[in-house]
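FIELD: query
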Amino acid sequence: MQNREQLWLELPPMSPEAPRRLLVFLHGAGSSPEAFAPVALAWQLKFPGAQAAILQGPEAHPGGAAHDWFDTRAVAADRAERAALAAARLAQRVAVLQQSTGVDAERTVLVGFSQGATVALEMVRNRPGLAAIVVAYAGRLARPIRSGERLDATVHLLHGEFDSLVPVVHAHQALRALHASGTEATLDIVADSGHVIDQQLIILGTTRVMQTVFRGRRRAAGDGRTLH
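FIELD: result
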């Protein structure tokens, strides 16, 4: 689908009988929905009832046809503000997708890579109740966690040990900050991996989401609520 601001790809569920979910994918800087499609398809194999939406960054990447979520060429001190603006715009798009698919926030998972991961984290910070789970590959927090701030989404951080573009220290810092705020968060580091989403990272990410969903089902069963 396309409008004046943004292009995105939608992949229908592979199995209408499987539990319904909404998987929203955010590519890295200098990429596109088409380039990220193999990752989305690999995720759908694990969640065959999920509708997948691969969103496109609104900013043109310098020197090519690819896209960014926010301009990285400006002053570094303004990066948090630019990430917050991108996250606010994107949260509106996610809400529209939820309405059109009939899938609520409790069954929505945000999956971002690099700059897309940073924006995904910023989205659930600025708009509580937008999604239940965030999977952040090679990401970092756009700004420090505020005193008293706690994310209601579960956050799974995944990082390559030898990532030279977004060093793994950012993932460690994010995990410490999230845990200190009381946010449910995990960190998996893949040895000998760099700034990529390889098969091992896909397996780790989907496994973390399955574990979170299973825990949610157990809690719901204990409360006597209907399971999805």
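FIELD: remark
The chain has a mean pLDDT of 89.
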